[in-house]
Design a protein that fits this description.
The chain is of the alpha+beta class. 15% of the residues lie in helices and 31% in strands. Strands 1, 2, 3, 4, 5, 6 and 7 form a seven-stranded antiparallel beta sheet that branches.
Length: 127
């Protein structure tokens, strides 16, 4: 059953999509403000309309050669600027924080690089 707070729009989320999310209020080193995020949650949970979504926030403050903590995401669709995925800032957010999207969808190669970076950051073996 879908939560009354969840719109039909957010129930159609897909892994690898970029959405705009309101990450306020922030705490400590967390990223705040309304910013693009990449949906990294398993598609099965998204399809089941789970009430929260695992995301990786993006920043336009680019840092070269920072893998696996940052993965470069090229501008595409409604994502107007190249951005870095902040892999070490992965978090679960309530679906109500997803305010607009999808802005874009990662190409398979970029999604694969992000998945590998997540494995590295979590110190999980490659499958």
């Amino acid at each position: 059953m879908r939560s009354s707070r969840q719109s039909n729009k957010t129930s159609m989320r897909k892994r690898g999509e970029i959405w705009l999310a309101d990450l306020n209020p922030r705490r400590g080193t967390e990223r705040g403000k309304t910013r693009p995020v990449i949906v990294v949650q398993a598609q099965a949970l998204l399809d089941a309309e789970h009430p929260s979504t695992l995301i990786v926030p993006l920043t336009t403050r680019l840092v070269d050669d920072a893998a696996p903590l940052r993965i470069r995401i090229r501008a595409a669709g409604k994502l107007k600027k190249d951005s870095d995925a902040l892999v070490d800032q992965v978090r679960a957010i309530d679906n109500a924080r997803l305010v607009q999207g999808p802005l874009s969808r990662l190409p398979a190669q970029q999604l694969g690089a992000l998945e590998q970076a997540l494995l590295d950051v979590f110190d999980l073996p490659a499958v």
